[in-house]
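> example.struct
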């Protein structure tokens, strides 16, 4: 089936695309929503503008749709992007990286129903520890680009998801009940390399921003 991938450049959307392709589907385009609202209810924002670089090494065309990120209104922008994908790339369905967010998954499903295409949430209710381990096993190079919850600090920016990360985030989950995969908005990620990429992306430079007491964001510059 020809599918469009809702693509933030983070681990969840990229891994969902990996699973779709592994299952025999064709990823005919990526759809990235560039939100001007950092507190968007729907869309990932750290380094979102760098998805174009990821699309280049995936050799998959990308649709970049801008939105002001206003609650519910931003869904119309998403719908418009999907309409473009249907017309231009003949997609028959959408792949999402939704894991636990009923808010996100239900709204995407509603749009797909309206447009008469399928919706695949390939990571829905995945086991958190198994998922993180699968990222490593399948050679996903994933770095942290934003942290937004106590006790995470600026020093977590740029960290790779590796065995040490899993061990530490498991302990923080036990102590503070934060999601090990950042599903509660605790952290955001960016994929530097994976089996879908023709080559690894190189980080030329970066800028870190402190936006609150427990809110830190890294913007990447990709070579």
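> example.seq
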């Amino acid at each position: 089936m020809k599918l469009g991938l809702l693509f933030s450049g983070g681990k969840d959307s990229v891994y969902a695309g990996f699973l779709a392709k592994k299952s025999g589907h064709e990823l005919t385009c990526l759809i990235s929503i560039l939100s001007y609202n950092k507190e968007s209810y729907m869309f990932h924002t750290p380094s979102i503008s760098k998805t174009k670089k990821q699309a280049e090494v995936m050799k998959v065309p990308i649709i970049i749709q801008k939105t002001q990120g206003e609650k519910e209104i931003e869904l119309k922008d998403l719908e418009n992007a999907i309409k473009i994908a249907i017309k231009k790339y003949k997609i028959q369905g959408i792949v999402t990286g939704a894991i636990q967010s009923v808010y996100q998954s239900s709204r995407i499903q509603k749009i797909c129903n309206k447009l008469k295409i399928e919706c695949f949430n390939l990571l829905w209710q995945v086991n958190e520890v198994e998922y993180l381990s699968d990222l490593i096993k399948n050679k996903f190079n994933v770095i942290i680009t934003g942290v937004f919850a106590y006790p995470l600090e600026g020093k977590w920016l740029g960290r790779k998801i590796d065995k040490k990360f899993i061990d530490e985030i498991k302990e923080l989950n036990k102590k503070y009940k934060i999601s090990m995969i950042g599903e509660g908005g605790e952290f955001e990620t960016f994929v530097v390399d994976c089996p879908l990429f023709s080559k690894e992306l190189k980080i030329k430079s970066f800028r870190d921003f402190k936006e609150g007491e427990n809110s830190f964001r890294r913007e990447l510059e990709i070579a």
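> remarks
The radius of gyration is 16 Å.
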